[in-house]
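#data-curation
PF: Archiving a pair of folding outputs for the training set. Convention for this channel: one message per protein, sequence first, structure tokens after, nothing in between. First:
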Amino acid sequence: MGAAMRHDGRPAGYYSLVKLLVRAVLAMMLAVPSPALASEAPGRAQEALQMARQAVRQYYEAQAAKGDAAAARWLGDHEHGAASLSWYRKAAEQGDAEAQGELAWRYDRGEDAPRDEAAALAWARRGAAAGDETAIEVLAERYRDGRGVPADLGRALDLYARLETDPDEEAIPALREAGLAGGKPVAPTFALLLQRLQADAAAGAARANWALYTFHREEFGIPDGGALAALPYLRRAAESRDPQAMTALGGWYAAGGAGLASADPHAALAWFREAALTGYSPAIGTLVGAYETGSLAARDPAKAMEWLRRGAMAGDPEAQVALAERLGTGTYPGGPPGVYAMDAEEALLLVNKASRAGNAHAMFLQGLYNLDGTPFARNPALAAEWLQKAANAGHEGAMVALAEMLEAGRGVKADQAKAFALYRDAGMLLRQGRAYRDGRGVTANAHLALDCFLAEFDRQHPTASEAMVWLGRMFEQGRGVGQDAALGLALYEESHSLAGAWLRAQYEDRLPGATLQSRLAAYRAVADELGGPPPALPADPAAALAWFRKAAQEYLDRFEDGTL
């Protein structure tokens, strides 16, 4: 009988080393330095990064000189003081809405620019008309406070309604709740609304106290606000049994400071519990996390499960999804295995309920189930439908999964342009950079690829090491920068990544004068660092080298395609 074959037609044994490498990449901290080059790598890597930045900057300067407003804005983003302001003004005058919003903000706040009320208002109006959210916010604040325009609560509310909800900001939702009744403003100005809220709060109205708490904490129309001024309103709202306020007060006790003498885990847990008893989803989630991790009390997974079941039975989609994930995996996010008994059938039922309720993460899981064939039969077309729904709801994981399907034509018609748009919306800079490098769904542009890779490196996410590998490839291939394999090698070395290690081995494999033994040693050095049983290699050194080369290239191909 012939060797077992995979769906791609290759012998199953071929992947023994690749599988080992894929498991190892989870650590993403492998370093296999070359003794002759290790001491030079950091300095040379910094030189490469600086050269890449200079190449990108020169590209944007050339584009700005041709009248590209977006390029001028980029230069404003990467300059300071008067130079930054000058580039923003150039972009804004050419109609760039984001630059108009930035100018409005800077003139309004006096940040990196002289404070100028007239200029702030003028640029805010232009930017808001073009839909820029920064400009809209500046203009809304002016109608709220009556600065440069007549105070008008209704106009301010209309503008605030155009902003996307920021989960870290609670004042704007509180303003909408307190300032509207039947879709109409309850007062002509924000100042009169504050007077009304103060009276209601003094009479014990929980939501009035909550609104005043958010306004003071975020200094929203209240310049002398702040944490200390906000805390009394929060206490009164919590004591009136408002679940949102009880959860927020629990957070204050958990963190300590800012008006509290010190953290008080017992008080925090008590407030979270009181809020959870009302069925308030964020409180349930916080309480579950506290019992699972032991952050506020002794670890008690049984209590965590009890609260999750309480929320799920009450129809809370967030609790249903969280419970499903634990029943499906036997643990909580970041937890050890075997914390909970697994029940795939119940997990699936819970995901079905939550997805029907419109929960984005549940719809994402439905997409993965249908894509992977667990527990359903594989149905890529249905998977794409679920992933599209989740992506439309803003789920970034679904955007990436759907983009990968569109890129590969897996279950859907291949569409590189749509895939690129999804990667962009999900903030996947490495995928965007790869697309610009190769012209996948977008016009090939090596400088924009470099910009994406540098931006990912500067974010210092866990993928920053991958960004160094991509930049190394650009130097090795001479894309957007002068071809320089040595600088590419320096970036591979400094990335401390598995891909970088294999690329270094390939570099040493290609060195003039390399011998069969030195080439094998370069690849073995990488494999030895992975630990575990050594791979079963052919006895013949030349065949062993061919095996290493094939396995390494397979890994690097998957690295570039994002299919690891």
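PF: Second:
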Amino acid sequence: MAVALRGSGADPRGTFLQTLFRALTPVWGMALALALPFGSCAAVGSAPVVVVEGDFLGQGGEAMRPRAESAARTMQAALDRAHIGYRLSRDSLVEKEGLPGARVCLLPYNRAVSPGELTKLLEFLRSGGKVICCLVAPPELLKALPVRAGDYLSGSEGTYAHVVASATWLPGLPSTVVSPTSQIRSASAAPSSQVVATWRSAKGQDTGKPAVVVGAGGAFITATLSDSGDRASQAALMRALCGYFVPQVWSECLPATPADLGPLGRYASLDELGARLVDRARDGEDVMRAAAQVGTATNTLALSRRSLALGDITSALRLSGQAREEAQRAYWMSYPSVNGELRGVWATYAAPPDWDTAIRTMREANLNAVFPYIATAGAAWYPSRYVPWVEDRDLLQEAVTAGSKYGVPVHARILGLYAMCAPESFRQSLQAAGRFAITAKGKTTRWLCPTNPQNRQLLVNLATEIVSRYAVSGLQLDYLRYPDEDCCLCPLCRKAFLATLSKPVADLTREVLRKGEVRERWLDWRREQITSLLVEVRSAVRAARPDLPFSAAVFLNWEDHRDGFGQDWKVWIDRGLVDFVCPMSYTPSLSRFEMYTRRQIGWVKGRVPLCQGIGVNADGMTFGGPQSLLDQITLCRSLGIEGWVVFNYDENFATKYLPFLKLGATSSPSNFSLPQSLAAR
């Protein structure tokens, strides 16, 4: 339980957070005390900033309504991001009521200001108010700012992309604002105004065109804020402009106490996070790293408020931003690191930028397994004797060498029956030999038929040569299935399946596609083709490397996919054919992920480790960032499964996910090993 420290009259001395800080170090208690005299953000009703939505569109301007609404939303988003309280109005209200109580008026895209509204705006300026307008404004209003505005200029994509600061005297003005637009307005400074930023192209070319002009009466931004722009830099721009004209904004938009610093992930504030850490410490958890970081953030926040009180806006902004970053670190640090779990990543044959760097990065984040695909049914990324070597480097050896160097086990992965990346000449030779699976419509796929003895031997040979020639830490089969439910109906499969029936079938294609006894027997037969192939591969691997972990990446829904793709992976587990299994349970939805995982736990029944697949970069799916990944990892832990594997290791994962994991959830090593009963069989 934490007392919200929202107003200067609140007494924070009873909060668990302050108790924790004082118990840890007197400096942190002092930091809280330093921060107390300052208030928090103003209530919206008394906010001195007003956003005027453009509901006057002018003759023939109805088509511009979406643009006006978008500009207003983008402006509001920037203010929200900057923690600036504001009120909403619109052209028609300003025309009637003016701007009572306001000190800054924002016009995000107001293309048809009426004479009556203009009168109110000019009265507002004469009374000491300030106006910040974007792209369009009546000449009389621009003159009062004062700004000289000229023609509208259009540019191709990327011509006007970055607003770059050209003045150093405006506190908090960001060096660059990413806000690409196809239209700006030419403008120049009047005698009592100054250009503070200019436009640059996406390639960094200086256009020489003013982007922001500041005068005694307000500011003119020569374009609307782009809805595809960078929200953080747009927020910083609006904070600098509003703060310059109304210094009160600085005090209101910068956090005053830990209760104002947030939200932080699942917590409303740093205060709430600190209170939760106290509870966890009472339950015996080691939360000292996160608690220490909370204290650091609180101390920095106090220094920010002190700088603000002394009028040093630049330092206050810098320290406030630092406090936010430190608070975020405290949040990620609050996730516990669990020993004994498998922490893996799937990868391509060449992890960026190279295997040494990639695996060092994995090691620094305490990951303990990587599963690179290194061969398919049509290509290899090492010098194979059985399929074409499609690189001039032995990428498998590079991965194994780096894995050994940094202590990260490398589980070579074969994309089973899929002839992905096969050179055209090799593909043609496979097709000429009748080795590809055929659909019910007679279409030739790029998947090998699992009934064909040559194809079965190929997969056995690939697995054997990999585990015999390379010091891999495991072997994983992927794509060990049919491409779809309507194959294979090649001549070999037709003959082999018909031989299992007690009576002839006039139209096999029709019978296997419609409900009935023939289809059920065909589905059983398909499953057995895949399962028996797995038996052959496993036997060969066991003969070559008896103790080598042998796993499979499988589709998430065994009940449906055993029919749709012939992948009967529960039977594989029941028969002891794999040492652990990695279902590809790719979804951004936590509730759906939980449903998948609970069903899979029921199918596995603890016979082998279940290492859940998490689809951070899965095709066609938008994942929710580090928070979603941690939610799914936390769920895996709470349900007691043995580990997780992320798809897929790439630059995005390495830079936007791993840094957050290693702060808390993987901050210490995890020693994963197979149960003795599995290792011995």
